[in-house]
Amino acid sequence: MARPLRIQYAGAFYHITSRGNERRPIFSSIQDREKMFSIFSEGVIRYGLSIHTYCLMENHYHLLLETKEANLSQAMHFINGGYTSYYNRIYHRSGHLFQGRYRAILVEKDQYASTLSRYIHLNPVRAGLCKRPEGYCWSSYLGYLDPKKRPSWLETSLVLGYFSSRKGEARWRFKQFVTEGIRGEIPDPIEGVVSGIVLGTGEFIDWLKKDIIGKMRVGRDLPAVRQLRPRPSVEEIKRRVELSIGKGHRWLRDISIYLCQHYAGETLKRIGEVYGGMGESAVSQAIRRLVCRMERDKKLKGEVLKIEMELRELSTV
């Protein structure tokens, strides 16, 4: 199974989840949780992290964190590796403590920071550990409500700043915002994750594709890379096919439609709109017709393969 893609850059914002191996407990005492807090504190200093929200459950933990440098992997190796060494030493055990690699969802900060903070703070409520989040002492929620209970390494100003510029009012509004999540059904922000690794608007994802993902050098053919790499548009594919085989080619339209389905990532409806308002059924028929023809016509198949190679290079630069 392919390892998850890690998108790292200065200023990246993540929702981190790390679970115990086979969902076993990773925190067995107050001392364990306090040790994790001390590791968080050292990680903030050593790696320039900003931890905006946390919640330690029995067999997993959540973090909202920001990296000033492109160093998430190093920081998480320090956090999980350091805690595993401590836990194995204290409980006279060996081997993995955490279940594989942590999950890191890259987040559009301004769009989702507050909703993810609420989602994380309500985790103990959803698990039935308390009726209200202020009844759980192993999350950052109390630090949001009372500055005296905020660990020095916890950054609350970003999330609270979305509610008001006045600190007291911001804390009150944030509390009301979280309480709304107890009273009624609220959307699960994690359901909006794209490719298992990104949570953001279309504009944010487009920016990632162009300025971050498109410049990465990845040796493995990861599904996430295939989905987030910049793709040629339907119009671009149509233009390239015309340049390659000429506008008068008998199979021009069908080749273009076939390649659009494979490389543009567009729906049949959208492809049909570009090619003279064709219906989805007509688009499907054109694709099947070309596939059957290529099985008999080796020259045609070679022409299509040549254009495919060009499109693959375009999608991996």
Report on this model:
With 317 residues, the protein is of the alpha+beta class. The chain folds into two domains: 12-215, Alpha-Beta Plaits, CATH 3.30.70; 232-316, Chromosomal Replication Initiator Protein Dnaa, Chain: A. It is built from 14 helices and five strands. A five-stranded mixed β-sheet has the order 2-3-1-4-5, with helices on both faces. The longest helix has 19 residues, at 72-90.
List keywords for this structure.
Chromosomal Replication Initiator Protein Dnaa, Chain: A; 5 strands; 2 domains; 317 residues; Alpha-Beta Plaits; five-stranded mixed beta sheet; alpha+beta; 14 helices
Can you tell me the number of structural domains?
A: 2
CATH architecture of the largest domain: 2-Layer Sandwich
Structural class: alpha+beta
Average pLDDT level: 87
Q: Taking strands numbered 1, 2, ... along the chain, how are they ordered across the largest sheet? A: 2-3-1-4-5
CATH class of the largest domain equals Alpha Beta
What is the general shape? elongated
Given the structure, what is the number of helices?
14
Oligomer: single chain
Question: Distance between termini?
Answer: 24 Å
Rg value? 25 Å
Order of helices and strands: EHEEHEHHHHHEHHHHHHH
**CATH H-tier superfamily of the largest domain:** Transposase IS200-like
Please give the share of residues in helix: 40-55%
Largest sheet: 5 strands, mixed
Can you tell me the residue ranges where pLDDT is under 50 for at least 5 consecutive residues?
219-226
Tell me what portion of residues adopts beta-strand conformation. Answer: 5-15%
- Total strands: the figure is 5
